């Protein structure tokens, strides 16, 4: 089934008091897709993502993730997704292999599988020999790649990445996207927010969020055609200029 | 259950990795247990005495000598007039004046009675009360001495023949430390337990790792238990360590069983750690949780009967102590250590603590939300 929808959102809304952080967004994500969520700071990307992950209760609208309702079945959703937050969230005082073991363990992997996953992961990230190093001591690029690998250690249906490459150098960003493609090839759907426009071009489809609304949704090539621009940068600038809301 | 295993493994690793935790856990109790019982002593010695002797006779001299040789008083001022004696109190040189009026000896011998005046600086109520009582006791004894001297072997003693003898049960030597050390140990366990538990979840909030937990299928009770159990075990370590100090340094061996103490402590710790975890589900930063836990445990400690007897508190405060887990533990510790009470004697207290444990932990689980509104 090529067109199976793993995420559906229908007029999904989040209000904080009078402030409408996410304003009636509607979109679908297909299985195996790399779906980019673009927008300036404060456009509502993270809030939208947190609602889909079951971390934040929507104010209105409907949404399903992996076939489960975000209102009632949020704990079932959690079994089927991986999440990498904007804030680095591995345990700094645990080693690489201890972090892998912990996160794999709480998602219910067996001991054999954990061992297998650990050696596979460490090899893939070329961190052999550093398994016992505390995460605190790793360079940022390593940490981000490790965090991503751990977010998908339980082979979830979908992984949510919130600005995963913030503050990372261009070479590591490339390697990071290498990992994303690999995961995608394994059938994991990728939902990624970013404000690097070159990264947007790696996605199958992108949405551009402005002031809590989705102003554009299509493949990067189509968007560039539609907005008569040679790069996603141009598309983004045309859309983002309309923003009234200030970034944070 | 498997999830819990991984949570516990992770918590224990983090505790072992943090050198400050283990240091605080063992050095702090040691210092407190070595210093506090010696300092927190109700027996008052070194009361500064001022004497206004306007009689200057053998009898008045004898009285003053008797008071000073009791060991409770230090002669700090010897004034000719009461006015000068008051001046010494006002300048904080003395705490208490004994005024011996003129003709003390003459009146005593001729009229068989003579007045004395004791004036006490009552700013420190405890010191004033005890100082007054001590000096009264000594004067009475002095009185008895003279009469015994005068009535050489009387056939019929005209003095009242009722004599009261005290027999101090459970703490025969009225050793203050035997009474204080178990209480201080409870206080320590409380401070350590509640503040460590309170800080723990908050630290995950500050680091951002709580998001990663919240987005996983971990159940709330698993997460709370995963935090509770490691500190529960550590607190038992502190308790054992404290009991060893009590035994080695102060020679305090419980009359009852150590096992009774441990059984009760296991319920107590569930309650107090639950309280800490509850705080941490409310607080956003470690400062908030530290301040609140400090504030609450201070009130709990003051209302616990550790320093002042619960029976002498006002009625409303006595009711409050029934909602104070520390008060129960201090009571039980003293019962087991001094009286040798067994599990059957402390049933009510165990039930009360069980209630606290269910209340605090239940509330903590309810209040910990994996999803924000």
Structural account:
The complex is a heterodimer of chains A (248) and B (373). By secondary structure, chain A is an alpha/beta fold. Chain A has a domain at 5-86 and 155-240: Rossmann fold (3-Layer(aba) Sandwich), CATH 3.40.50.300. Chain A is 36% helix and 26% strand. A 6-stranded mixed β-sheet of chain A has the order 6-7-8-3-9-10, sandwiched between helices. In chain A, helix 5 (140-151) packs parallel to helix 6 (170-185). Chain A is globular. The N and C termini of chain A lie far apart (41 Å). Chain B has 373 residues and is an alpha/beta fold. Chain B folds into 2 domains: 2-40 and 175-367, no CATH class; 47-150, abc type-2 transporter like fold (3-Layer(aba) Sandwich), CATH 3.40.1710.10. Chain B contains 14 helices and 4 strands. Chain B has a 4-stranded mixed β-sheet, sandwiched between helices. In chain B, helix 3 (58-69) links the parallel strand 1 and strand 2. Chain B is elongated and about 95 Å long.
Which structural traits does this protein have?
heterodimer; A: alpha/beta; Rossmann fold; four-stranded antiparallel β-sheet; B: 373 residues; alpha/beta; abc type-2 transporter like fold; 4 strands
End-to-end CA span of chain B: 29 Å
**Biggest beta-sheet profile of chain A:** 6 strands, mixed
Q: What helical percentage do the residues of chain B reach?
A: 55-70%
Shape of chain B: elongated
How many separate helices of chain B? 14
The strands making up the biggest β-sheet of chain A line up spatially as 6-7-8-3-9-10
**Major sheet of chain B:** 4 strands, mixed
CATH architecture assignment name of the domain at 5-86 and 155-240 in chain A: 3-Layer(aba) Sandwich
Classify the beta-strand content of chain B into a percent band: 5-15%
Q: What is the helix tally of chain A? A: 9
How much of the residues of chain A is beta strand, in percent? 25-35%
Count of spatially separate domains of chain B: 2
Poorly predicted regions of chain A: none
Please tell me the overall pLDDT of chain A. 90
What is Rg of chain A?
18 Å
Which oligomeric form is depicted?
heterodimer
Q: In angstroms, what separates the terminal alpha carbons of chain A?
A: 41 Å
Structural class of chain A: alpha/beta
Uncertain runs of chain B: none
The chain-level mean pLDDT of chain B equals 85
Task: Count the E strands of chain B.
Answer: 4
């Amino acid at each position: 089934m090529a067109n199976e929808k793993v995420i559906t959102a229908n007029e999904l809304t989040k209000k904080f008091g009078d402030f409408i952080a996410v304003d009636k967004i509607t979109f679908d994500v297909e299985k195996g897709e790399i779906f980019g969520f673009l927008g300036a700071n404060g456009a509502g990307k993270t809030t939208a993502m947190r609602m889909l992950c079951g971390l934040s209760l929507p104010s209105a609208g409907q949404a399903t993730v992996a076939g489960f309702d975000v209102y009632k079945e949020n704990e079932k959703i959690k079994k089927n997704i991986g999440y990498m937050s904007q804030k680095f969230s591995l345990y700094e005082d645990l080693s690489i292999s201890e972090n892998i073991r912990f996160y794999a363990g709480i998602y219910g992997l067996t001991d054999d599988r954990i061992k297998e996953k650990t050696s596979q992961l460490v090899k893939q990230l070329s961190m052999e020999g550093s398994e016992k190093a505390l995460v605190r001591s790793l360079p940022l690029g390593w940490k981000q790649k490790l965090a991503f690998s751990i977010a998908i250690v339980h082979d979830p249906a979908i992984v949510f990445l919130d600005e995963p490459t913030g503050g990372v150098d261009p070479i590591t960003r490339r390697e990071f996207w290498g990992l994303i493609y690999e995961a995608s090839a394994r059938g994991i759907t990728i939902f990624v927010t970013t404000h690097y426009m070159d990264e947007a071009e790696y996605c199958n489809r992108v949405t551009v969020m402005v002031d809590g609304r989705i102003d554009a949704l299509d493949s990067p090539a189509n968007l560039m055609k539609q907005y008569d621009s040679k790069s996603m940068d141009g598309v983004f600038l045309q859309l983002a200029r309309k923003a009234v809301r200030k970034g944070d | 259950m498997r999830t819990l295993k991984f949570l516990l493994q992770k918590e224990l690793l983090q505790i072992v990795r943090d050198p400050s935790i283990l240091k605080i856990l063992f050095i702090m109790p040691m210092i407190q247990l070595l210093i506090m019982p010696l300092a927190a002593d109700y027996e008052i010695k070194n009361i500064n005495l001022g004497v206004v002797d306007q009689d200057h006779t053998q009898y008045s001299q004898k009285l003053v000598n008797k008071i000073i040789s009791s060991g409770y008083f230090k002669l700090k001022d010897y004034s000719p007039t009461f006015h000068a004696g008051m001046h010494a109190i006002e300048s904080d040189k003395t705490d208490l004046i004994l005024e011996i009026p003129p003709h003390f000896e003459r009146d005593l011998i001729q009229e068989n009675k003579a007045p004395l005046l004791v004036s006490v600086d009552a700013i420190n109520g405890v010191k004033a009360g005890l100082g007054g009582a001590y000096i009264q006791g000594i004067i009475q004894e002095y009185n008895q001495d003279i009469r015994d001297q005068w009535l050489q072997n009387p056939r019929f003693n005209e003095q009242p023949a009722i004599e009261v003898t005290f027999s101090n049960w459970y703490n025969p030597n009225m050793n203050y430390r035997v009474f204080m050390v178990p209480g201080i140990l409870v206080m320590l366990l409380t401070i350590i337990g509640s503040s460590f538990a309170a800080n723990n979840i908050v630290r995950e909030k500050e680091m951002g790792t709580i998001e990663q937990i919240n987005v996983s299928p971990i159940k709330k009770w698993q997460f709370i238990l995963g935090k509770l159990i490691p500190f529960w075990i550590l607190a038992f370590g502190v308790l054992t360590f404290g009991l060893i100090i009590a035994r080695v340094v102060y020679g305090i061996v419980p009359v009852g069983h150590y096992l009774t103490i441990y059984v009760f402590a296991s319920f107590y710790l569930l309650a107090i750690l639950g309280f800490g975890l509850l705080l941490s589900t409310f607080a956003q930063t470690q400062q908030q949780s530290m301040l609140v836990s400090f504030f609450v445990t201070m009130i709990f400690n003051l209302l616990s009967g550790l320093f002042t007897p619960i029976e002498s508190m006002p009625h409303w405060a006595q009711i409050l102590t029934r909602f104070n887990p520390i008060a129960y533990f201090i009571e039980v510790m003293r019962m087991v250590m001094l009286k040798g009470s067994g599990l059957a004697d402390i049933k009510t207290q165990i039930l009360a603590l069980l209630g606290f444990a269910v209340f605090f932990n239940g509330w903590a689980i309810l209040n910990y939300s994996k999803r924000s509104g």
